[in-house]
Amino acid sequence: MINDVIIIGGGASGMMAAITAASRNKKVTIIEHCEKTGKKILMTGNGKCNYSNTLQNVDCYRSSDDSFVNSVLEKFPQKDVTDFFLRNGIATKNRNGYLYPRSGQAAVISEFLREKCEHAGVNIICGLECKSIKCVNGIFSVKCRYMENGEKCVMSARSVIVSTGGMTYQKSGSDGSGYRILSELGHHIIKPLPALTPLHCKEKFFKALKGVRCDAKVSLYIDNKFTASDTGELQLTDYGVSGIPVFQISRYASRALDEGRKVTVDIDFVPEYDENTVGDILLSDNDLSISQTLNGIVNKKISQVILKITGISENMVSKKISTNDVRKIVRHLKSTKVTVTKTGGFEQAQVCCGGVSTDEIDSGTMQSKLIDNLFITGEVMDVDGICGGYNLQWAWSTGYIAGSNC
Ligand SMILES: Cc1cc2nc3c(=O)[nH]c(=O)nc-3n(C[C@H](O)[C@H](O)[C@H](O)COP(=O)(O)OP(=O)(O)OC[C@H]3O[C@@H](n4cnc5c(N)ncnc54)[C@H](O)[C@@H]3O)c2cc1C
User: Whose CA is nearest to atom 49 of ligand 1?
Assistant: First the structure.
């Protein structure tokens, strides 16, 4: 029996593609090697599923071709995604532009997509892994293996959509096999690396900073050259830095580390004040110790680390402190430089950068430019979004386009 469409991977983009294709009366089968579909969706947005964002522009996505990204987002934009969910009874919660299902439960999205597939007649086969794909005379043979007993089978289809995701949080199913499968079909894969990940740093003082969360600006330097910066809630851990501003700059750090380049992060613990204002606060005319004065500006653990690094006694009375010592403290408050040694790896990253080159995919259809009727969706391609719902938006848009054209 020949399927119209086989979709490899029942994640966000695969299920969107399946629903769209089935609504066009296509006979669709999803092959999913996990025991159920949509496992990664459950993890998104801390279990709340930040499914998109009202702010959409090309700067929110990283790829080698901005026109590719624009063309995709125009065809199934955020508003269409929100309308699609609403039409199906899923209301939206808008938190400063970040969109979530109103119930605050990622499971609502994951279960809805699964049920919508089933109602549309999509044949979902879980526990079945795609090993390879071949196309002979316009018919695809999809070689598979049952996870439970290792038994092999071959399925046939006129079109195949590869929706296998990246290779982060591999327990959720995305184990990177899609890169191999597509590479065997002749596609060029830009080396996948972790993105939206914490950064491990060399400095020993991080042990003393563990658990601190503070508003800060982080600036990334590669080979001493400014590359990117972001401001927001910084999380300090015993191994380095984490939190949304770090995630936003991490994909550049990841690529640079992989290339063996020097990566540093400059932390500004008081981004809202300039150096003179911070100096004036430190020199305030009071009898407090410098450590007490500093504690009025930053978290106590940060104060202690800065005093230790600068060698200034924490009992020194603020108004008696020398101009030189004030300068030293201000420098560390405004610019503590740390050396990045590695990223959090695929285990801690939310998304992969790299993947199938967008030069080889038609942005109007998601069809491979190398093989007719082979389509590619979601994270497996070389486009990654910043934090804030952009990676799922990419999955919905690419899934919808592939499902409309397969
Ligand atoms: C912890 C975490 C939090 C996140 N939070 C957010 C968020 O709030 N907002 C946001 O926009 N993005 C978020 N993301 C990113 C987002 O989840 C992904 O970018 C998105 O799910 C990618 O969709 P996809 O369809 O490409 O792949 P996936 O959703 O990963 O689906 C791929 C599917 O393919 C299956 N599969 C893979 N290989 C095979 C094979 N060989 N045979 C059969 N099946 C296979 C997998 O089991 C999986 O079900 C988060 C990611 C993580 C890890």
Answer: 11
